[in-house]
Design goal:
The chain has 213 residues and is of the alpha/beta class. 31% of the residues lie in helices and 24% in strands. It has one domain: NAD(P)-binding Rossmann-like Domain (Rossmann fold). Strands 3-2-1-4-5-6-10-8-11 form a 9-stranded mixed sheet, with helices on both faces. Strand 1, helix 1 and strand 2 form a beta-alpha-beta unit. Helix 1 packs across helix 5. The longest helix is centred in the middle third of the chain and has 18 residues. It is globular. The mean pLDDT is 93.
């Protein structure tokens, strides 16, 4: 089984990623948490944890890890320390320990942060982290969803390297499914794609990424 480190495991989307991984026979999730008291919630589910704080040294967290899903976010409270530099630290640690693939949860609009009125700083932090990963030499997939919702997952999405209509939402549960499917070596390797709620089954959709416009 491949050991999958989930950064941001205590967040709403990250928690759904953990659940997806637990239901997958090929993956063993490992949740990175900041505080010792957060470990018990995962360990009660049979999920291993590792202590790590994105604002501190996290070199150790990727040791023995096969692949990484980065789903952390500071909700605007620490964009530089967490969303930008924190992501970069995990990329560096992944390189050091020869992680096989890095799946990054980004955001629609991260490629053009200057076009956003309210989210410019957030999208710029995501852009910087995405570029750093893209230039790292690691195998990666960068997933850019629209607005995350708590709606019931449909298992279906719209996907493209650049969606014409970027306004829309997508359930967090579907984003979690896409992130886990993107762990596969053959799925969107060294690719960036955008997703919204749609009509194509996730399993089929992510396999088409190299050919979508």
């Amino acid at each position: 089984m491949e050991k999958i480190l989930v950064i941001g495991a205590t967040g709403t989307t990250g928690n759904k990623v953990i659940n997806e991984l637990q239901n997958h026979q090929n993956y063993e999730p490992i949740a990175m948490v900041r505080k010792p008291e957060q470990q018990s919630q995962f360990e009660q589910q049979g999920v291993k944890t590792i202590l790590g704080d994105l604002t501190e040294d996290v070199t150790h967290v990727t040791e023995g890890i096969d692949k990484v899903i980065f789903a952390a976010g500071s909700k605007g409270k620490a964009l530089d320390a967490v969303d930008r530099k924190g992501a970069m630290k995990i990329v560096d640690a992944s390189k050091r320990h020869k992680v096989q693939k890095f799946v990054m949860l980004s955001s629609i609009g991260a490629d053009q942060p200057q076009q956003s009125d309210q989210l410019q700083e957030y999208l710029q932090a995501k852009n910087d982290a995405d570029e750093y990963l893209g230039n790292s030499g690691l195998d990666f997939t960068i997933v850019r969803p629209g607005t995350l919702s708590d709606d019931t997952p449909t298992g279906k999405i719209t996907i493209s390297k650049s969606l014409e209509n970027k306004k829309g939402s997508i359930p967090r549960g579907d984003v979690a499914k896409v992130l886990v499917h993107s762990l596969k070596d053959a799925v969107a390797n060294r690719e960036v794609f955008e997703i919204l709620n749609g009509e194509q089954h996730i399993e089929e959709a992510v396999m088409t990424v190299p050919s979508v416009n």
